Protein backbone atom coordinates (compact mmCIF):
# COMPACT_ATOMS: atom_id res chain seq x y z
CA UNK A 1 0.00 0.00 0.00
CA UNK A 2 1.54 3.30 -1.10
CA UNK A 3 2.30 5.76 1.68
CA UNK A 4 1.00 9.31 1.57
CA UNK A 5 3.30 12.28 2.09
CA UNK A 6 1.83 12.73 5.58
CA UNK A 7 2.54 9.09 6.45
CA UNK A 8 6.13 9.37 5.22
CA UNK A 9 6.70 12.49 7.32
CA UNK A 10 5.11 10.83 10.35
CA UNK A 11 7.50 7.89 10.08
CA UNK A 12 10.46 10.24 9.82
CA UNK A 13 9.34 12.11 12.91
CA UNK A 14 8.79 8.91 14.90
CA UNK A 15 12.21 7.58 13.90
CA UNK A 16 13.77 10.81 15.19
CA UNK A 17 11.44 11.31 18.16
CA UNK A 18 14.35 12.28 20.44
CA UNK A 19 15.46 15.12 18.20
CA UNK A 20 14.14 17.89 15.97
CA UNK A 21 13.72 17.67 12.20
CA UNK A 22 13.66 20.86 10.21
CA UNK A 23 11.17 21.49 7.45
CA UNK A 24 14.07 21.87 5.03
CA UNK A 25 15.49 18.47 6.00
CA UNK A 26 12.12 16.79 5.56
CA UNK A 27 11.54 18.50 2.22
CA UNK A 28 14.98 17.51 0.94
CA UNK A 29 14.76 13.91 2.11
CA UNK A 30 11.28 13.35 0.64
CA UNK A 31 11.91 15.54 -2.43
CA UNK A 32 8.89 17.75 -1.79
CA UNK A 33 8.34 21.45 -1.17
CA UNK A 34 8.35 23.17 2.22
CA UNK A 35 4.69 23.97 1.64
CA UNK A 36 3.95 20.26 1.21
CA UNK A 37 5.72 19.57 4.50
CA UNK A 38 3.64 22.22 6.26
CA UNK A 39 0.38 20.86 4.81
CA UNK A 40 1.32 17.31 5.82
CA UNK A 41 2.13 18.42 9.39
CA UNK A 42 -1.31 20.06 9.65
CA UNK A 43 -2.94 16.88 8.33
CA UNK A 44 -1.09 14.79 10.90
CA UNK A 45 -2.13 17.09 13.72
CA UNK A 46 -5.77 16.82 12.65
CA UNK A 47 -5.37 13.03 12.88
CA UNK A 48 -4.49 13.32 16.56
CA UNK A 49 -0.70 13.41 16.29
CA UNK A 50 0.87 15.74 18.82
CA UNK A 51 3.74 17.41 16.97
CA UNK A 52 5.77 20.23 18.47
CA UNK A 53 7.27 22.95 16.31
CA UNK A 54 9.97 25.48 17.20
CA UNK A 55 11.44 28.27 15.19
CA UNK A 56 14.91 27.45 13.79
CA UNK A 57 14.60 23.86 15.09
CA UNK A 58 11.72 22.29 13.18
CA UNK A 59 9.31 19.58 14.27
CA UNK A 60 9.26 16.82 16.87
CA UNK A 61 6.77 13.97 17.34
CA UNK A 62 5.42 13.71 20.89
CA UNK A 63 2.62 11.13 20.80
CA UNK A 64 -0.69 10.10 19.31
CA UNK A 65 -3.36 9.01 21.76
CA UNK A 66 -5.48 7.80 18.85
CA UNK A 67 -4.98 4.54 17.02
CA UNK A 68 -3.07 5.12 13.81
CA UNK A 69 -2.31 2.56 11.09
CA UNK A 70 0.94 4.23 10.02
CA UNK A 71 2.29 4.21 13.58
CA UNK A 72 1.24 0.61 14.21
CA UNK A 73 2.87 -0.44 10.95
CA UNK A 74 6.03 1.40 11.94
CA UNK A 75 6.17 -0.42 15.26
CA UNK A 76 5.75 -3.76 13.46
CA UNK A 77 8.53 -2.90 10.99
CA UNK A 78 5.90 -2.66 8.23
CA UNK A 79 5.20 -6.39 8.62
CA UNK A 80 1.45 -5.73 8.39
CA UNK A 81 1.50 -3.07 5.69
CA UNK A 82 -1.53 -3.68 3.51
CA UNK A 83 -3.02 -6.15 5.98
CA UNK A 84 -3.86 -3.77 8.78
CA UNK A 85 -7.10 -1.80 8.86
CA UNK A 86 -7.76 0.83 11.52
CA UNK A 87 -11.11 2.58 12.01
CA UNK A 88 -12.33 5.08 14.55
CA UNK A 89 -15.64 3.28 15.06
CA UNK A 90 -17.17 0.05 13.77
CA UNK A 91 -20.07 -2.18 14.75
CA UNK A 92 -17.54 -4.80 15.85
CA UNK A 93 -14.10 -5.73 14.56
CA UNK A 94 -15.20 -9.37 14.57
CA UNK A 95 -18.09 -8.66 12.20
CA UNK A 96 -15.86 -6.54 9.97
CA UNK A 97 -13.20 -9.27 9.81
CA UNK A 98 -15.69 -12.00 8.94
CA UNK A 99 -17.30 -9.84 6.27
CA UNK A 100 -13.85 -9.17 4.78
CA UNK A 101 -13.03 -12.87 4.78
CA UNK A 102 -16.23 -13.69 2.93
CA UNK A 103 -15.09 -11.55 -0.03
CA UNK A 104 -11.31 -11.95 0.03
CA UNK A 105 -8.85 -14.80 -0.05
CA UNK A 106 -6.62 -14.31 2.97
CA UNK A 107 -3.25 -16.04 3.01
CA UNK A 108 -1.55 -14.09 5.81
CA UNK A 109 -2.70 -12.84 9.21
CA UNK A 110 -4.88 -9.79 8.67
CA UNK A 111 -5.86 -7.34 11.38
CA UNK A 112 -8.83 -5.05 12.02
CA UNK A 113 -8.53 -2.49 14.82
CA UNK A 114 -11.09 0.00 16.11
CA UNK A 115 -11.02 2.83 18.59
CA UNK A 116 -14.63 2.08 19.56
CA UNK A 117 -17.33 -0.49 18.83
CA UNK A 118 -21.07 0.14 18.79
CA UNK A 119 -21.98 -3.55 18.79
CA UNK A 120 -18.98 -5.32 20.27
CA UNK A 121 -19.80 -8.84 21.36
CA UNK A 122 -18.35 -11.86 23.09
CA UNK A 123 -19.52 -15.42 23.67
CA UNK A 124 -23.22 -16.11 23.05
CA UNK A 125 -23.42 -12.70 21.38
CA UNK A 126 -23.20 -10.98 24.76
CA UNK A 127 -22.45 -7.25 24.44
CA UNK A 128 -18.90 -6.10 25.17
CA UNK A 129 -18.64 -2.53 26.46
CA UNK A 130 -16.33 -0.77 23.99
CA UNK A 131 -15.83 2.94 24.73
CA UNK A 132 -13.47 5.10 22.67
CA UNK A 133 -9.93 6.09 23.66
CA UNK A 134 -9.52 3.89 26.75
CA UNK A 135 -9.95 0.35 25.41
CA UNK A 136 -8.40 -1.74 22.68
CA UNK A 137 -10.51 -3.80 20.28
CA UNK A 138 -9.17 -5.83 17.38
CA UNK A 139 -9.75 -9.00 15.38
CA UNK A 140 -7.28 -11.11 13.45
CA UNK A 141 -7.96 -13.43 10.55
CA UNK A 142 -5.60 -16.36 11.03
CA UNK A 143 -5.46 -18.55 7.92
CA UNK A 144 -4.27 -22.12 7.97
CA UNK A 145 -2.51 -23.37 4.83
CA UNK A 146 -3.02 -27.02 5.81
CA UNK A 147 -6.75 -26.76 6.71
CA UNK A 148 -5.95 -29.01 9.67
CA UNK A 149 -6.40 -27.78 13.25
CA UNK A 150 -5.66 -30.62 15.69
CA UNK A 151 -6.72 -29.87 19.27
CA UNK A 152 -8.43 -26.66 18.18
CA UNK A 153 -9.79 -26.35 21.71
CA UNK A 154 -6.31 -25.20 22.78
CA UNK A 155 -6.40 -22.17 20.52
CA UNK A 156 -8.18 -19.85 22.96
CA UNK A 157 -6.07 -20.90 25.95
CA UNK A 158 -2.91 -20.28 23.92
CA UNK A 159 -4.15 -16.88 22.77
CA UNK A 160 -4.79 -15.98 26.42
CA UNK A 161 -1.20 -16.87 27.32
CA UNK A 162 0.28 -15.00 24.35
CA UNK A 163 -1.78 -11.91 25.13
CA UNK A 164 -0.86 -11.98 28.81
CA UNK A 165 2.83 -12.34 28.01
CA UNK A 166 2.59 -9.02 26.16
CA UNK A 167 0.46 -7.35 28.83
CA UNK A 168 3.02 -8.18 31.50
CA UNK A 169 5.59 -6.17 29.53
CA UNK A 170 3.35 -3.09 29.74
CA UNK A 171 1.88 -3.73 33.21
CA UNK A 172 4.61 -5.64 35.10
CA UNK A 173 3.03 -5.13 38.52
CA UNK A 174 -0.32 -6.69 37.60
CA UNK A 175 -1.19 -10.30 38.39
CA UNK A 176 -3.15 -11.47 35.34
CA UNK A 177 -5.07 -14.76 35.58
CA UNK A 178 -7.32 -16.85 33.35
CA UNK A 179 -10.95 -17.79 33.76
CA UNK A 180 -11.72 -20.82 31.60
CA UNK A 181 -11.87 -20.50 28.80
CA UNK A 182 -11.77 -17.10 27.16
CA UNK A 183 -11.32 -14.39 29.80
CA UNK A 184 -8.28 -12.75 31.34
CA UNK A 185 -8.82 -11.53 34.89
CA UNK A 186 -7.25 -9.02 37.22
CA UNK A 187 -8.22 -8.91 40.90
CA UNK A 188 -11.13 -11.31 40.23
CA UNK A 189 -12.53 -9.01 37.54
CA UNK A 190 -12.47 -9.24 33.78
CA UNK A 191 -10.03 -7.09 31.80
CA UNK A 192 -9.81 -9.01 28.52
CA UNK A 193 -12.29 -11.08 26.53
CA UNK A 194 -11.24 -13.43 23.74
CA UNK A 195 -13.60 -14.80 21.11
CA UNK A 196 -12.35 -17.43 18.66
CA UNK A 197 -14.59 -18.34 15.74
CA UNK A 198 -13.95 -20.90 13.00
CA UNK A 199 -14.64 -20.10 9.36
CA UNK A 200 -15.32 -23.14 7.18
CA UNK A 201 -14.17 -23.84 3.66
CA UNK A 202 -17.42 -25.11 2.15
CA UNK A 203 -15.69 -27.00 -0.67
CA UNK A 204 -13.49 -29.07 1.61
CA UNK A 205 -15.77 -28.94 4.69
CA UNK A 206 -12.70 -28.02 6.76
CA UNK A 207 -11.67 -25.02 8.79
CA UNK A 208 -10.02 -22.53 6.45
CA UNK A 209 -9.30 -19.91 9.08
CA UNK A 210 -10.01 -18.72 12.56
CA UNK A 211 -11.04 -15.20 13.44
CA UNK A 212 -9.93 -14.23 16.92
CA UNK A 213 -11.47 -11.14 18.47
CA UNK A 214 -9.90 -9.43 21.45
CA UNK A 215 -11.43 -6.72 23.60
CA UNK A 216 -9.56 -5.22 26.51
CA UNK A 217 -10.17 -2.59 29.14
CA UNK A 218 -6.87 -0.75 29.10
CA UNK A 219 -7.58 2.43 31.05
CA UNK A 220 -11.39 2.63 31.15
CA UNK A 221 -12.64 4.03 34.45
CA UNK A 222 -16.33 4.70 33.77
CA UNK A 223 -18.35 1.52 33.35
CA UNK A 224 -22.14 1.06 33.24
CA UNK A 225 -23.62 0.37 36.68
CA UNK A 226 -24.36 -3.27 35.86
CA UNK A 227 -20.67 -3.88 35.08
CA UNK A 228 -18.88 -1.94 37.80
CA UNK A 229 -18.56 -4.90 40.16
CA UNK A 230 -17.55 -7.30 37.40
CA UNK A 231 -14.95 -5.61 35.22
CA UNK A 232 -11.83 -3.56 35.73
CA UNK A 233 -9.00 -1.94 33.79
CA UNK A 234 -5.28 -2.55 33.70
CA UNK A 235 -4.30 0.95 34.72
CA UNK A 236 -5.76 4.37 35.37
CA UNK A 237 -2.88 5.80 33.34
CA UNK A 238 -3.20 5.53 29.54
CA UNK A 239 -0.52 3.60 27.69
CA UNK A 240 0.62 3.83 24.08
CA UNK A 241 -2.15 1.78 22.47
CA UNK A 242 -0.42 1.85 19.09
CA UNK A 243 2.63 0.17 20.57
CA UNK A 244 0.51 -2.23 22.63
CA UNK A 245 -1.58 -3.47 19.71
CA UNK A 246 1.52 -3.78 17.52
CA UNK A 247 3.17 -6.08 20.07
CA UNK A 248 -0.01 -8.11 20.44
CA UNK A 249 -0.55 -8.72 16.73
CA UNK A 250 3.14 -9.47 16.20
CA UNK A 251 3.10 -12.05 18.98
CA UNK A 252 -0.12 -13.76 17.92
CA UNK A 253 0.90 -13.85 14.24
CA UNK A 254 4.30 -15.31 15.08
CA UNK A 255 3.05 -18.10 17.35
CA UNK A 256 -0.55 -19.02 16.49
CA UNK A 257 0.41 -21.99 14.31
CA UNK A 258 2.20 -23.44 17.37
CA UNK A 259 -0.93 -23.16 19.54
CA UNK A 260 -0.86 -26.88 20.49
CA UNK A 261 2.55 -26.56 22.16
CA UNK A 262 1.97 -27.99 25.69
CA UNK A 263 4.08 -25.20 27.23
CA UNK A 264 1.23 -22.76 26.61
CA UNK A 265 -1.25 -24.99 28.39
CA UNK A 266 1.13 -25.40 31.32
CA UNK A 267 1.37 -21.63 31.63
CA UNK A 268 -2.42 -21.34 31.41
CA UNK A 269 -2.93 -23.88 34.19
CA UNK A 270 -0.50 -22.06 36.48
CA UNK A 271 -2.66 -18.94 36.44
CA UNK A 272 -6.15 -20.44 36.05
CA UNK A 273 -8.50 -18.97 38.67
CA UNK A 274 -10.99 -21.85 38.46
CA UNK A 275 -8.73 -24.74 39.48
CA UNK A 276 -9.43 -25.99 43.00
CA UNK A 277 -12.44 -23.73 43.39
CA UNK A 278 -16.17 -24.33 43.26
CA UNK A 279 -17.61 -23.16 39.97
CA UNK A 280 -20.94 -22.96 38.19
CA UNK A 281 -20.73 -24.05 34.57
CA UNK A 282 -23.61 -23.14 32.27
CA UNK A 283 -24.13 -25.73 29.55
CA UNK A 284 -27.22 -24.84 27.59
CA UNK A 285 -30.11 -25.04 30.05
CA UNK A 286 -28.06 -27.10 32.52
CA UNK A 287 -26.02 -25.62 35.36
CA UNK A 288 -23.22 -27.85 36.62
CA UNK A 289 -21.90 -27.09 40.11
CA UNK A 290 -18.69 -28.57 41.45
CA UNK A 291 -14.98 -28.08 42.05
CA UNK A 292 -12.78 -27.56 38.98
CA UNK A 293 -10.18 -30.34 39.05
CA UNK A 294 -8.13 -30.09 35.90
CA UNK A 295 -7.69 -28.51 32.50
CA UNK A 296 -7.09 -31.45 30.21
CA UNK A 297 -4.53 -31.83 27.42
CA UNK A 298 -7.12 -30.75 24.85
CA UNK A 299 -8.17 -27.70 26.87
CA UNK A 300 -11.33 -29.29 28.31
CA UNK A 301 -12.35 -28.61 31.91
CA UNK A 302 -12.92 -31.45 34.38
CA UNK A 303 -15.25 -30.76 37.30
CA UNK A 304 -16.02 -32.93 40.32
CA UNK A 305 -19.73 -32.30 40.78
CA UNK A 306 -21.50 -31.98 44.12
CA UNK A 307 -22.57 -35.62 43.89
CA UNK A 308 -18.95 -36.78 43.45
CA UNK A 309 -19.07 -37.41 39.69
CA UNK A 310 -16.11 -36.39 37.50
CA UNK A 311 -17.36 -34.71 34.31
CA UNK A 312 -15.26 -33.20 31.52
CA UNK A 313 -16.50 -30.35 29.35
CA UNK A 314 -15.17 -29.03 26.05
CA UNK A 315 -17.75 -26.25 25.95
CA UNK A 316 -19.87 -24.24 28.33
CA UNK A 317 -19.35 -21.06 30.29
CA UNK A 318 -18.14 -20.66 33.85
CA UNK A 319 -20.64 -18.19 35.25
CA UNK A 320 -19.56 -18.23 38.91
CA UNK A 321 -16.31 -18.82 40.76
CA UNK A 322 -16.33 -19.10 44.55
CA UNK A 323 -13.33 -17.54 46.25
CA UNK A 324 -12.67 -17.59 49.98
CA UNK A 325 -15.32 -15.40 51.51
CA UNK A 326 -16.72 -14.15 48.23
CA UNK A 327 -18.29 -15.19 44.96
CA UNK A 328 -17.65 -13.86 41.48
CA UNK A 329 -20.34 -13.77 38.81
CA UNK A 330 -19.51 -13.84 35.13
CA UNK A 331 -20.25 -10.56 33.41
CA UNK A 332 -20.09 -10.00 29.66
Features:
332 residues, alpha+beta, Arc Repressor Mutant, subunit A, BirA Bifunctional Protein, domain 2, SH3 type barrels, 3 domains, six-stranded antiparallel sheet, 8 helices, 27% helix, 32% strand, transcription, ATP binding, Transcriptional_repressor_C
Short synopsis of the structure:
It is elongated, with a radius of gyration of 22 Å. It contains 8 helices and 15 strands. It starts with a helix and ends with a strand.
Please characterize this protein's 3D structure:
It comes from Secundilactobacillus paracollinoides. GO terms for molecular function: ATP binding; biotin--[biotin carboxyl-carrier protein] ligase activity; DNA binding; transferase activity. Biotin binds at residues 117, 190. This is Bifunctional ligase/repressor BirA. It holds the Pfam family BPL_LplA_LipB. The chain is of the alpha+beta class. The chain folds into three domains: 5-64, Orthogonal Bundle (Arc Repressor Mutant, subunit A); 69-270, 2-Layer Sandwich (BirA Bifunctional Protein, domain 2); 278-329, SH3 type barrels. The protein is 27% helix and 32% strand. The chain is built from eight helices and 15 strands. It has helices spanning 5-15, 23-30, 34-46, 69-75, 93-103, 154-170, 241-255, 262-270; strands at 49-54, 58-64, 84-90, 110-117, 135-143, 176-179, 183-186, 189-201, 206-217, 278-283, 286-295, 301-305, 310-313, 317-323, 326-329. The protein has a seven-stranded mixed sheet with strand order 3-4-5-9-8-7-6, with helices on both faces. A six-stranded antiparallel sheet has the order 13-12-11-10-14-15, with no helix packed on it. A hairpin with a 3-residue loop joins strand 6 (176-179) and strand 7. Helix 1 (5-15) crosses helix 3 (34-46) and helix 2 packs across helix 3.
Amino acid sequence: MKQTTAQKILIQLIEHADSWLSGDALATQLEISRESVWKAINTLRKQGNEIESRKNMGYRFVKNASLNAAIINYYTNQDFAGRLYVDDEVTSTQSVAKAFLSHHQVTQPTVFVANAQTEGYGRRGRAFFSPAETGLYFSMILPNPTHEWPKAGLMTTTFAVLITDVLRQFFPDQDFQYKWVNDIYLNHKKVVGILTEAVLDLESSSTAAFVVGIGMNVATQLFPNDLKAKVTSMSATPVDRNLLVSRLIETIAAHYMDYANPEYLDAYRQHAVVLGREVHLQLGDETVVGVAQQIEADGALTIKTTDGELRTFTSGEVTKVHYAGQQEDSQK
